[in-house]
Amino acid sequence: xxxxxRTDCELAIVGGGPAGLAAAALAAELGVETILFDEQPTPGxxxxxxxxxxxxxxxxxSDILGADYAKGLALVERFRSSGAAYEPLSxxxxxxxxxxxxxSQKGRAYLxxxxxxxxxxxxxxxPFPVPxxxxxxxxxxxxxxxxxxxxxxxxxxxxxxxxxxxxxYLVAFQLMKARAPLTGVIDTSRKGLLETGLTALPVLPGFxxxxxxxxxxxxxxxxxxxxxxxxxxxxxxxxxxVEAVTFEGRGKRRRLPASLLLLHEGVVPNNQITAxxxxxxxxxxxxxxxxxWTDEWGVTSAELVAVAGDGAGISGARAAVHGxxxxxxxxxxxxxxISRAERDERARPERQHLQRDARFRAFLDNTYRPNEAVRRxxxxxxxxxxxxxxxxxxxxxxxxxxxxxxxxxxxxxxGMGQCQGRMCGATVARILALSLExxxxxxxxxxxxxxxxxxxxxxxxxxxxxERDLRPSxxxxxxxxxxRV
Amino acid sequence: MMATDAIVxxxxxxxxxxxxxxxxxxxxxxxxxxxxxxxxxxxxxxGGIRQLMRHKAEVPLSIAAMDAWERLxxxxxxELAKNCEFIGGVGQIGxxxxxxxxxxxxxxxxxxxxxxHEFEEVIDAKELRRLIPAIADICRxxxxxxxxGHANPFRTTQSFRLRAEQLGVRFMExxxxxxxxxxxxxxxxxxESGVFRADILINCAGAWAWQVAExxxxxxxxxxxxxxxxxxxxxxxxxxxxxxxxxxxxxxxQTQAGTVVIGGGVLGDPDLNNETADTVADRxxxxxxxxxxxxxxxxxxxxxxxxxxxxALMPDVIPVIGPSQVAHNLWHAFGFSGHGFQLGPIVGSIxxxxxxTGESAIPIAELSPARFSTNDMLATTRIPDRKVSQEAGxx
Lengths: 485, 395
Hints:
The structure holds two protein chains of two kinds.
Chain A: E1 8-14, H1 18-29, E2 34-37, H2 51-57, H3 60-65, H4 67-70, H5 72-80, E3 85-87, E4 90-95, E5 100-105, E6 108-119, E7 123-125, E8 138-140, H6 141-151, E9 159-164, H7 166-177, E10 182-187, H8 193-200, H9 208-223, E11 228-230, E12 232-237, E13 244-249, E14 252-257, E15 260-265, E16 267-269, H10 272-276, E17 281-284, E18 289-292, E19 305-307, H11 316-335, H12 340-367, E20 382-384, E21 389-390, H13 391-400, H14 405-412, H15 425-436, H16 440-443, E22 455-456, H17 457-461
Parallel strand pairs in A: 1-2, 1-6, 2-3, 6-19, 8-15, 9-10, 9-15, 10-11
Antiparallel strand pairs in A: 4-5, 5-6, 7-16, 12-13, 13-14, 17-18, 20-21
Helix pairs in contact in A: 1-5, 1-11, 6-7, 7-9, 11-12, 13-15
Chain B: E1 2-9, H1 13-24, E2 29-32, H2 41-44, E3 48-49, H3 59-70, H4 72-76, H5 78-83, E4 92-96, H6 99-114, E5 121-124, H7 125-131, E6 141-145, E7 149-150, H8 153-166, E8 170-172, E9 177-183, E10 186-191, E11 194-203, H9 209-214, E12 224-232, E13 242-245, E14 251-254, E15 260-263, E16 269-271, E17 276-278, H10 281-294, E18 302-312, E19 320-323, E20 330-334, H11 344-357, H12 375-378, H13 390-393
Parallel strand pairs in B: 1-2, 1-11, 2-8, 4-13, 11-20
Antiparallel strand pairs in B: 3-7, 4-6, 5-6, 9-10, 10-11, 12-15, 12-18, 13-14, 14-15, 16-17, 19-20
Helix pairs in contact in B: 1-8, 1-11, 3-11
């Protein structure tokens, strides 16, 4: 971290997870002047969060987090020795199509101009709106895992995990190993992993290990006598905080007492920046999420901006590394460090890895296609947490004649709060699409503008290097203030 | 082909209000909107209801509009009126920081009094601090219009639309006008979703109004702009009046939700063809500086959103209201240059008067499109750098 911020560079990379680290390392190795901006204090992203410190400790935590987590260390080490500049604790609050980034770091904001930008902003947990999901004591399973990685915090009260996707079982397994009082797992996926996995095994050569890993987590939970239910229509109950979880299983409504409910229905691309750039986006029906359209190098419809990793479509940590390298090769080529021929040559092995991974990803998408997320939300379920707008409120507005997601926002304030629409955008769009009997593409998404991360007024006021010629001159004393333009 | 008495082009607040008033006078009216109602300036302005520091040509309209705001129940019925979230009587205050600004306040108030208007009043530092305890010591007084206030722009525009619909107006959204022709049987309006016919045509197309005029060969100023607003996360209630700058770039209010809306005429980057606008951080700095200096409490606030609405800008910063100079049975009402929201309830009634009787009880001669018949007024097709619409930010 430098005391005087660098205000220009050839390549800026946003995000310090596998895609960002791999891209930054390779670009710097190829001689591109590279800065990686990371919101975290240390490299690793969500998946390898705090990897350097945790791997030095060699304590119970490393064992709990497992071998896959430890794999992140090599990635970080290569990045550290690549010569790429690292700017930790840096929140990016704007990216313009002309390559200007707004950075907020250590309580101060500044602007950086980049010749090219690779967004490696990863994924966010898919919002999982169920009745009672805004009660204290309900949180994302990914968020619980983050607490474990960042500070070794493990739940100490009766905990239930509900949802679908590989992370559900991984977190359950990790909590079990950490001796958290896990009282139940509610699997909301359509079919069990055992069933789909065994059917798919013949067409997924080389992925038996991954499948077995998932199955071994399940087996371990069973051995530990942690009840695993197949269920749907999950709801949180309680007065001032969650007291129990209810769900439908085997044809009847069941109830599990719980003080902590961890919800998870997979992850979706974090596309707040590409949306604010008005990049073309594609609705991915298999993953039930928006992703930015890209060419084969990850370049978006905004020419200077590429995306890599889960931000370009959920493909997992392994694929993110290869995607990051492809974006770095293309950037190095466009900046003039390598020829097209060299870029294409070096890209070949990365693409082979990606093709191989894509088969497993298709299997996962199919197995863990959100089941609850296609269900009709109850009218009383809150869609927008920040402004407490329910599904029923939104349906009433559609019935009144509103046909545009931004009209719903303007009228009900959904999406206007502190989370800037991250927690409700997809839900509101789905309610609108179903009500109008149309598809997600027709409904679109919120119009987003800067700041893409909340920005303190004082930091904007003190923005050191704003371009003076872009400022409107303050209106002078000449002329009548009531008649000035 | 659909035939009717009157067609209004443009679903902003003035289009909706005009349609409403035409319907009140018994005309069968269709409103054509290329996008959705309230999509641009009408839906996304700062919502100021301001008589303060108006251009003299607008003052009579502004006074009549204020009366209409205070009697919204009569026009909209109690439920839709409530929906507008109009709060009057909290006042709008032009803040004076320098001696020169203070002097200007005295001159302005005296000038208004000489025209017979008492509603602009100079206040000293003590009164300013009584009204706004959170204001910084550097502010030495200002000029106030105590009846002024604010409303929710999107909800207000929707309320006008719903009232117009109750009165039988037909709203056609996502219906873009592609051609206009006037013949023996009135106007033929070609759109992407069919052809319409009407005797009377009203152009309320805002930033795109000059394009509508061009379709019949009438040349009007083509300038448009996008005024930037930013909004903070919710804060504890700390201010009632709306505050605007005199020489400083500032417009400031706290909404009922607790968020603080900061404007002041900072320009966004408009994109007329794509019908959108981007906000520009570099330019927003000056606005953030001013609010931090005037309201130290704001230093702790966090900006969560910014936006910019597209709006027509006339070279003389006052709207075009009146009959077309090249065709009969065509009236224009656009070019509000970023401060038309307060005039929302009155412009439609002026247009309806013009349509029905050929005259308006409220003087509008200075607003006639005829003022652009000489070419020098028309020449302005870009915004000179320093001529940022501070007026716009004051809304």
